[in-house]
Specification:
This protein is mainly beta. It is built from 2 helices and 10 strands; from the N terminus they run ββββββαββββα. The chain is globular, with a radius of gyration of 15 Å.
């Protein structure tokens, strides 16, 4: 199927690759289907692109290479909502707030996007009582200079 995207224009996506967000995303509760589209050739950045709203696309990354100590436990409610049977089915992304220059880009570690890639179900999980915030510098070593 063809979808109009924020960053890539009109593209072809496989219907079976779409990820369902049964409860939408915070602030976008009506948005239920998204495509995860590579945004960089090296596989570091992705776009979480709404299928129904072309201008709605979030830049994502795997947070663990940038924040090796990043760790959290999913509450049972989130595990159930994602229909998780195995931790091997889980993919975690952080939503980025892009900056100019790019070195000032931040990652939201307080609300990771968690996906069951086997069943193609996603949920943005709000971590409560955690030390994480909505803006962690992706490149803290460049800020310190």
């Amino acid at each position: 199927m063809k979808i109009e995207t924020k960053y890539h224009g009109l593209i072809d996506v496989q219907k079976e690759e779409l990820v369902r967000f049964p409860n939408g995303l915070p602030g976008f509760l009506e948005e239920k289907k998204f495509a995860v589209i590579p945004f960089s050739e090296d596989g570091t950045f992705f776009i979480l692109q709404s299928v129904q709203t072309p201008e709605l696309g979030f830049v994502l990354t795997n947070p663990f290479p940038f924040f090796p100590d990043y760790d959290f436990n999913l509450e049972n409610q989130a595990v159930d909502a994602l229909e998780l049977d195995s931790s091997e089915d889980v993919t975690v992304y952080a939503v980025l707030t892009m900056a100019d220059p790019f070195l000032l880009t931040t990652a939201n570690l307080q609300a990771p996007v968690v996906m069951n890639m086997k069943k193609k179900i996603g949920k943005q999980v709000i971590l409560t009582g955690s030390p994480y915030q909505t803006k962690h510098n992706l490149f803290p070593e460049t800020i310190a200079k």
